[in-house]
Fold this protein.
Amino acid sequence: MKNWPRKFGLACAAISLAAGHAQTATPALALVSAADAAKWEEWAKPSGWKILAAPAEAAPANAGADARLLALAQVVRGAVARHEADPAHVYLAGRGDDAATVFYGISRLPDLWAAGVAIGGSPEPAIQSGRLFTANFGLAPVLWIGGNNGDEAFAERLHAAGMSVEWQPPAGLATAAVFEWLARHERPEFPTEIDCETNSPEFAGCYWLRPVTFDAGERNDVLPSTRLAAGSGAHLDLGGFGYKTDDPGPGLLVSFLPQKYSGPLKLGDRLMELDGKPIENPAQYVATMGRMSETRHAAVMLERGKDRIRIETTVIVPRHEAVVTARVQGRYDSDQKQVLVISRTVTKMNVTLPAHWLPATLLWNGLTLENATQPGCIQLTIDHELLHATPCP
């Protein structure tokens, strides 16, 4: 989309938002974790915003991030259908260790949110997932309130990579200012320019475009991947221990151990050195491990109460498989009455057209569908350089 003039349809979009998204329901905060609802309800009370969260039985803490996001999405869509939440003003929120899931959630379901707010924590775990695509933040930016050393520089690197993220320090930032920042962002129903990338048909929503069938053979070098490269994925062979990413240090405090853990660590241990070099805090540890490039022997010094214990271990660097993703871009040109779609790795796609864009000519990767006149969803298929259109099932 960088090669497309930004002027197309911006004025029309503003008019559409003013006329078509008159607020008839309440803005809502969708929480990454229902366990944090009481604190967010306290903060939201002056504004009257609704708090949405998936029930614990639908999104247990041990469920994967994707399962929890799908459960939350179902709650959000239900509230919108009942006119309890304004679809133009639903915001994803999380703090502490849940902050990373705000970044992850917008990348996975970009067309559900108007914006996101992450308090504390770090986006690093989301980046390590290999599913953070900067294109998906174009219409759903994130306010990251981070207080760790290096957070501001980290946010600047994300912004330089193409992610729409704004960093603010926690000191002096009133809760009301957070809600004011969020309220400035609206989710448009039919934005005139869209850009999304995904690695899964289950998470392929992009406003009025939805890829249905992926084919790795359908290459399009015009659309490079916007996936943020994860680090090496290196980890210490000490078992599945956990730590809080926003812990100030020094060292790395072991705050979680799985059931039936049989490794050398205990809750409350603090990893202080790796190969004789100090571990300053979790952020520095993550950065150090991200630079590891090969599996090798390592030594860790930890504090356990008043004792210092040296542990011989191994740095394990997993082998990464190549990731195939799909990327779609769409633009409505009001001057030419054209809907232009460009995609990579997609052979079937659902396109939903609003009445105020029609009649229009639809072009997908250079193939043309003349005289689209009926609003609603069209399923397009590319087959042997031919474009086929049928009503969506």
Summary: The longest helix spans residues 65-81. The chain has eight helices and 21 strands. The longest strand covers residues 307-316. The chain has three domains: 22-187, 194-228+323-393, 235-316.
